[in-house]
Design goal:
Layout lengths: L2 E2 L5 E2 L6 E5 L11 H15 L3 E6 L8 E4 L2 E5 L3 H17 L5 E6 L6 H4 L4 E5 L13 H12 L1 H4 L5 E3 L2 H10 L6 E3 L20 E5 L9 H10 L7 E5 L5 H10 L6 E5 L3 H9 L3 E4 L8 H7 L5 E4 L4 H4 L6 E4 L7 H10 L5 H14 L4 H17 L4
Parallel strand pairs: 3-4, 3-7, 4-6, 7-8, 8-9, 9-10, 11-12, 11-14, 12-13, 14-15, 15-16
Antiparallel strand pairs: 1-2, 5-6
Helix pairs in contact: 1-14, 7-12, 10-13
């Protein structure tokens, strides 16, 4: 059976493969994020093309041990410590039984180090590595453990092919010692927006953040800039879409800044509601210290919404500075005046800002999941066929 490409034309050069995906969380996990969306969107397409896809993830409260998500067989292997402790033996048994053609290891949390303990082809899908940003997210003992765990990647993965989701991630990998010839780059796609957008339509004076509410995302920067923006934009609305461990702290900060009456925390919303909110937003703000790519940036652009983001890895790949938005500062640079000026410059619905909205729509049109699935399929096939050195 030949697999089908995005165009529906059979691809006789790629035979159906048995693919084992290692990613800590699956799409139904309460803390699932952009990495899980990316993996699900791509591998559901590969499953539809005739590949056999299995995904090993951790369990969570009330989760089924085994389920099917978008054609992917998802198997949950208990709580986090048990997951990492037992995964190598479980995977080796599958390989010994001839059930696996290639392993796709997702590098976006702790590395699995699969090349050291399994005798099977491995492809590393790298969203991002944390490095020092880990100290902005978790307590220092755990952050130190993450940094130490990442330090061994260059030696353990020196012969493994990588598929990075951005040039920034590729540069990071190369700087850490992964040979550039082993790294390919394939940005994620996006789902079609739920609404057709007229870039010239009037929008309310709304500034929005969408994504997980975690410390390293630095959503506090949006609130601090918003407090200064109120003088110039008296009817300003601030919208925070998403869930995460920082929500309580951010609500407290909004109250302390006098923003409680004009700030709305929505929690998780379905895609259609999110798109409606973004289509009525003048500016999206993403102050994260580091991203693998910036999927939410492109999703905002697809609804004609410009972005102000930190000039940080991943975000500098997805934001076209002074074309689809603005990049501000860098890692650790929190010049709130600079953030305020950047946001304010896109709030006026003048001719220049309307032109930015049009360019956002054009830029977002370059990204689709079928193309990303094509890239993954060819990378997996190459990894499966590659002779072990």
């Amino acid at each position: 059976m030949a697999s089908a490409t995005a165009s529906g034309v059979p691809s006789p050069t790629i035979r159906p493969l048995r693919i084992l995906v290692l990613n800590e969380r699956d799409p139904e996990h309460p803390r699932a994020g952009g990495a899980e969306i990316h993996v699900e969107r791509i591998f559901s397409r590969l499953a539809a093309r005739g590949h056999e896809v299995h995904w090993l993830s951790t369990g969570f409260l009330a989760a089924e041990k085994r389920t099917e998500i978008s054609g992917i067989d998802v198997q949950r292997r208990g709580p986090l410590p048990f997951y990492y402790a037992t995964l190598p033996l479980g995977v080796r048994r599958r390989v010994a039984r001839g059930e696996v053609d290639v392993i796709v290891e997702c590098l976006n949390k702790l590395p699995f180090y699969a090349p050291l303990w399994v005798d099977a082809p491995v492809l590393s899908l790298c969203h991002h590595l944390f490095g020092g940003v880990a100290f902005d997210q978790v307590a220092w003992p755990l952050a130190t453990a993450v940094v130490i765990a990442e330090a061994g990647i260059p030696r353990a993965y020196r012969r493994v092919p990588f598929l990075a989701i951005s040039d920034s991630t590729a540069v990071d990998l190369e700087a850490r010692g992964i040979p550039r010839r082993h790294i390919s780059v394939s940005p994620p796609g996006i789902d079609p927006g739920a609404y057709d957008v007229d870039p010239a339509a009037t929008r309310p004076p709304r500034v929005t953040y969408v994504g997980r509410l975690e410390r390293y995302k630095r959503v506090d920067v949006l609130l601090r800039a918003g407090a200064r923006l109120v003088e110039a934009v008296p009817d300003l609305e601030l919208l925070v879409i998403g869930k995460g461990t920082e929500r309580g702290n951010l609500e407290d900060l909004a109250r302390d800044l006098g923003l409680e009456g004009r700030t709305r925390f929505t929690g998780f919303v379905e895609d259609r509601e999110r798109d409606a909110l973004l289509a009525g937003t003048r500016v999206c703000v993403f102050p994260s210290e580091k991203e693998g790519w910036g999927l939410t940036v492109i999703e905002a652009n697809a609804l004609g919404t410009p972005v102000v983001a930190r000039d940080a890895p991943g975000l500098r790949d997805s934001v076209r500075h002074e074309e689809t938005g603005l990049l501000v500062g860098s890692e650790g640079d929190d010049d709130i005046d600079a953030w305020t000026r950047a946001i304010a410059s896109l709030m006026d619905e003048d001719e220049a800002t309307l032109a930015v909205r049009t360019r956002c729509l054009e830029w977002a049109g370059h990204f689709d999941w079928d193309r990303a699935a094509d890239d993954m399929e060819h990378a997996i096939a190459a990894a499966a066929a590659r002779e072990r050195e």
